[in-house]
From TrEMBL:
<feature type="domain" description="Response regulatory">
    <location>
        <begin position="2"/>
        <end position="115"/>
    </location>
</feature>
<dbReference type="InterPro" id="IPR046947">
    <property type="entry name" value="LytR-like"/>
</dbReference>
<feature type="modified residue" description="4-aspartylphosphate">
    <location>
        <position position="55"/>
    </location>
</feature>
<dbReference type="InterPro" id="IPR001789">
    <property type="entry name" value="Sig_transdc_resp-reg_receiver"/>
</dbReference>
<dbReference type="Pfam" id="PF04397">
    <property type="entry name" value="LytTR"/>
</dbReference>
<protein>
    <submittedName>
        <fullName>Two component transcriptional regulator, LytTR family</fullName>
    </submittedName>
</protein>
<dbReference type="InterPro" id="IPR007492">
    <property type="entry name" value="LytTR_DNA-bd_dom"/>
</dbReference>
<dbReference type="GO" id="GO:0000156">
    <property type="term" value="F:phosphorelay response regulator activity"/>
</dbReference>
<dbReference type="Pfam" id="PF00072">
    <property type="entry name" value="Response_reg"/>
</dbReference>
<dbReference type="GO" id="GO:0003677">
    <property type="term" value="F:DNA binding"/>
</dbReference>
<feature type="domain" description="HTH LytTR-type">
    <location>
        <begin position="147"/>
        <end position="254"/>
    </location>
</feature>
<dbReference type="InterPro" id="IPR011006">
    <property type="entry name" value="CheY-like_superfamily"/>
</dbReference>
<keyword id="KW-0597">Phosphoprotein</keyword>
């Protein structure tokens, strides 16, 4: 089986490749494409693969734009941290729709579904909308329980419950632990929006997402401006964006 992976997070793409090889070492990954533009260019200039595994949110837009640009008829298994795209995914060759973080057993089930739908000779069968919706309804929302980080030549997992906040600087996202350890991660704050429990984490501005228990003091200034003291402390003052102040207060009161 020849597969193309459309995914803008390199670690996620590598993990997906590992799961594919675990399922079937004979699977050939033809390309790892990080964007809509790169995908359109590749599909225009290469023979169609047997299957595409495609994240919905890419670095330059939603992957549905690929189908609006070229006539791509390849079966697709979509992956995403969000669950609001079910119907749209169905309309563009969707075999299945997997929520991040990806689960190996669910990936295997999706590949087996692909084989049943398309058969050994590639003869496509119809996948009913009702069936797809039923399969989606069975999936409970899951939030990311750990993050993989690099320490020199070693890899380490950090449990989400040990993380106090995330921040971005120089186009790199960092996590900060309760022990004030800081590690870069392969996710943007935008991409993490559906990975974190919204009851525990809130994005206070464009550069930072904080956990509720990390907030030690809340200072309210004139005109509603809010400054936070965090644990561990930050080098610079941390403010809640003015356009998020009302929503932030509602989040605090939930």
């Amino acid at each position: 089986m020849k597969v193309v992976i459309v995914e803008d997070e390199h670690l996620s793409a590598q993990r997906l490749q590992g799961m594919l090889k675990k399922y079937d070492p004979a699977i050939e990954v033809l390309a790892e494409l990080p964007s809509v533009a790169a995908s359109v260019d590749w599909f225009k200039n290469n023979p169609d693969p047997d299957l595409v595994l495609m994240d919905i949110h890419l670095e330059d837009g939603q992957s549905f734009s690929i189908f609006e640009t070229i006539n791509l008829q390849v079966p697709v298994i979509f992956t995403t941290a969000f669950d609001e795209y079910t119907i749209k995914a169905f309309k563009v060759n969707s075999v299945d729709y997997l929520m991040k973080p990806l689960n190996y057993e669910e990936l295997v089930a999706a590949i087996e579904k692909f084989k049943r739908i398309h058969g050994e000779a590639g003869e496509e069968k119809t996948l009913g909308l009702e069936h797809l919706l039923q399969s989606m309804q069975k999936k409970e929302p899951e939030y990311k329980s750990r993050f993989l980080v690099s320490i020199g030549s070693r890899l380490k997992t950090i449990e989400t419950e040990d993380i106090q906040y995330f921040f971005s600087a120089d186009k790199i996202t960092f996590l900060v632990t309760k022990e004030n350890q800081r590690f870069p991660i392969d996710y943007s704050l935008d991409k993490m929006a559906g990975m974190l429990d919204p009851k525990q984490f809130y994005r206070i501005n464009r550069q930072m997402t904080v956990k509720l228990e990390a907030i030690r003091n809340i200072h309210v200034f004139s005109k509603g401006k809010i400054k936070l003291d965090l644990d561990p402390p930050t080098k610079e003052d941390v403010f809640v964006s003015m356009d998020k102040v009302v929503e932030f207060k509602e989040w605090l009161g939930k």
